[in-house]
Amino acid sequence: MMYNSNVGVQLTFNQPQACGAHTNVLLLIIVHSTFGSYDKRAAIRETWGNQKNLKDFVPILFFVPAYPDSPPEVQLSLTKESSTHPDMVQWHSVNDNIFTSKLVVSTFWIKNYCSHASYVLTVEDASIVDVSKLLRFLKSLPYSWTPLFLCDYLSPNEATLVPEGEMSKPYCSSKAFLTTLAVLEKMVNALNDHGVGLKGAWLSQIADAASVKWTNTSQHFTSTRQKPSMINELTSTNYTHSKIMIALVLNTIEGREATIMRHVWKIIQEHYSHSQEMYSDTEDNDPSPITEKPTSNILPLAILLMFVDLIIVALIFLLIFCKSKKRVRL
């Protein structure tokens, strides 16, 4: 059964011009959110999703599901937020599984309104994305990396949503993954053909069914799943040269996600500020930021000091010679 992008998806409000007249969209970011997550959406708009700080055009959209039984004031609040911030898409579930509905709706929207985007990053709203570093990484990718599928890679002992003993191999979490429209369409087709089994590992199952290859890309992700590791990686002075690009603030600290997101982003900004690399204009293909080497006057200064030393030594020898000659006359 093939996926028809025009069937089964209803949008309450939409942003059909989000990709605008831009013919080249390297990266589209879809942030899956909920009606009660205004603080997290606000934190993203203030921090890594602030379009004023992005050198390249990167559309960032919040996808919020519609709940038929939600109070009228909830929908009124979302509609008001949408009119103030033209970055929201509200959708109605296309099946009984909220997780796979997100995949279907995202694919539908991209195919219809931003099919020319080269890459798509899908994340949950409790996330920090270093867009500057991610863009450099994407620009550095060889053609052999397409089709691309990078995900938050988890080991079986991290399977919080999978019943114990039912997952014996590593899998991809749906909290964050980077791919292309072509891969998404293959996965939606596989979803229609095979359905989904394990709740927490559904993304890996669909990827496997669609013959989409995925590998361990954990070096690009960090999360509060490993709190000490995340803190060390984001506060390290070597952060700007690390491969970490996406941090996930998970439900282990529910209610404080927005505060943590703002604090972590402030730390990241300080890293770039200290190394003078924040949103640099470099076109270098290395995914890690590289500081431009300043022109230096050290070599001319060293040569000058060497000549001064030689003159001083010569004067000392001349003085000694004159004194010894005077003693001989006496």
Automatic annotation (TrEMBL):
This is Hexosyltransferase. It holds the Pfam family Galactosyl_T. GO terms for molecular function: hexosyltransferase activity. It comes from the Eukaryota. It is an enzyme of class 2 (transferase). It is found in: Golgi apparatus membrane. Keywords: Glycosyltransferase, Golgi apparatus, Membrane, Signal-anchor, Transferase, Transmembrane, Transmembrane helix. The chain crosses the membrane at residues 298-321. One of its GO terms (cellular component) is Golgi membrane. Gene3D superfamilies: 3.90.550.50. PANTHER family: BETA-1,3-GALACTOSYLTRANSFERASE 6, BETA-1,3-N-ACETYLGLUCOSAMINYLTRANSFERASE. The keyword Transmembrane helix applies. It is a single-pass type II membrane protein. GO terms for biological process: protein O-linked glycosylation. Its EC number is 2.4.1.-. Belongs to the glycosyltransferase 31 family. It comes from Lymnaea stagnalis.
